């Protein structure tokens, strides 16, 4: 559990650093270098013989490379698409659902035929494809390197305030979003890590485990396409209500897993869970664009993913510890459903706060105009009062 949790957590833990490099050097260079590092980490994992080196090669090196390749793929979409950004994010993120459906069957065949280490070497082909795909990124928004040094000038390191753009936390709606999402994720990934072990304990080896992954992958892809398109019709920060609904249903489905005494009922739960998982993932970037704008979206996503790394890393091992203490996963799944409900409740305040912020911003220039007019009136009054005694003196002379 620690190897997979460490790998999953490092992908998101590195995201604030990735966002800084993305702003400095652009999406293309960061994505290409990240894919190369991930390729080295995955290839080196295929040569280890004990589990301890895997904590570094797979849990840290491979995960860091994936993080550097993943985040630019979200940021680059905002350079090309504005009107249908939700649909585009749904199409792009649906690719992971496609491989979630197909990879379990492929991995089963590969492991049985060529063992685990050669399977990791075969997966390096996918990382090499990711390496080549990074060269196709052509950012349209200039990065910090171009702004500071220009094309002909030498690159000068920008000020620390521009490197770490903490100004996104001045936006109250973003702060609430950055609090609610990690709060919901303490139990979000527990079913994805421990569901297969729960199925073995509850139903034995007679049921096909891959069917559940197939259900999760198919409906997650459908959810990303459908809800990504739906998000385009929802104005402004009200898109957040889709994430609220997704957290509510995912928390409810997690609590229902221990109640499923029939394998068919568990399949139905996985279908709904995958559908709303796709909803949560596909509208992350559109919401970030709405809250902070296109210029700050890279670091806004990076800081959020970095905050997400803590609950994603801690949640599954805690669930595994509860299983070791209690002898069953039931309590772990019940408790895993509570954080998504709490996080969803926190997110409900964002549209109201965001609208108030917009009203204040609209009122600021009006206030400025009125103060300018008041100053102009005062200046005219002062000039009038000074001119009168001068005229009286002139008449006296």
Question: What does this protein structure show overall?
Answer:
With 397 residues, the chain is mainly α. It has one domain (1-136, 166-363): MFS general substrate transporter like domains (Growth Hormone, Chain: A, Up-down Bundle). 80% of the residues lie in helices and 0% in strands. Helix 9 packs parallel to helix 15 and helix 15 (297-326) packs antiparallel against helix 16. The longest helix is centred in the first third of the chain and has 49 residues, at 85-133. The radius of gyration is 27 Å and the shape is globular. Residues 366-397 have low confidence and may be disordered. Residues 363-376, 385-397 have a biased composition (Basic and acidic residues). Its main location: membrane. This is MOT10 protein.
Helix/strand order, N-terminal first: HHHHHHHHHHHHHHHHHH
Give the strand content. under 5%
- What is the name of the CATH class? Mainly Alpha
Please state the average pLDDT score.
79
What proportion of the residues is helical, as a percent range?
over 70%
Distance between the termini: 100 Å
Identify the notable features of this structure and list them briefly.
single chain, 397 residues, mainly alpha, Growth Hormone, Chain: A, 18 helices, globular, disordered C terminus
Question: What's the SSE blueprint?
Answer:
Layout (H helix, E strand, L loop, with lengths): L1 H12 L1 H11 L1 H19 L8 H22 L1 H4 L4 H49 L10 H6 L10 H4 L8 H13 L5 H14 L6 H24 L6 H17 L6 H20 L1 H9 L4 H30 L3 H7 L1 H10 L2 H47 L1
Pfam families: MFS_1
Keywords: Membrane, Transmembrane, Transmembrane helix
Main location: membrane
